[in-house]
Amino acid sequence: xxxxxxxxxxxxxxxxxxxxxxxxxxxxxxxxxxxxxxxxxxxxxxxxxxxxxxxxxxxxxxxxxxxxxxxxxxxxxxxxxxxxxxxxxxxxxxxxxxxxxxxxxxxxxxxxxxxxxxxxxxxxxxxxxxxxxxxxxxxxxxxxxxxxxxxxxxxxxxxxxxxxxxxxxxxxxxxxxxxxxxxxxxxxxxxxxxxxxxxxxxxxxxxxxx
Length: 210
Prior knowledge:
There is one protein chain. By secondary structure, the protein is an alpha+beta fold. Helix content is 36%, strand content 14%. It has helices at 3-16, 22-25, 35-47, 65-82, 93-99, 117-122, 127-134, 175-179; strands at residues 53-57, 85-89, 102-107, 110-116, 185-188, 191-193. The strands form two sheets. The protein has a four-stranded antiparallel sheet with strand order 3-4-6-5. Strand 1, helix 4 and strand 2 (85-89) form a beta-alpha-beta unit. Helix 1 (3-16) packs across helix 3 and helix 3 runs parallel beside helix 4 (65-82). The chain is elongated, with a radius of gyration of 21 Å. The model has no long low-confidence stretch (mean pLDDT 89).
């Protein structure tokens, strides 16, 4: 498109994401913006072409809680206004709860669990998902209480694919886990998990529930 038309569209996109005085800020350099403003500018770039799908990779990283909430609210409003779908890639389970309708939990490049958000939080079925949820600090926790962690280190991706990628860190792992890759199967309607010990006729007991 002509340069002037492109400029007009860029300014309109900046206004849409809440950049104040967009006409003058249009010429600003990134270092003249705050972290939250830079994130808004990135979203403006993404929506400028009216996408059907917006992919947001760690959209709230390095933002304080207040700015994070503003960015998430902005994304939800844009989703409604532009009728677009949003795919969020994040390690922040609070963001997932706030934004997602469905969740795909991945480990070392493989899907280990997939279901709707409420089911994932109420009834998770994969040990890695358990570890992620247990790692979230609880309001009821004592200050001196140590944080829960997932023991071990992520695997070398060059050596994955033979068995379950999570086997080396899973407290429930047995020999089969290192020898055979578990298939992703439907345990309940629209709830899938990839674990040798989870199935329609078998349920692995979560140790925190014993």
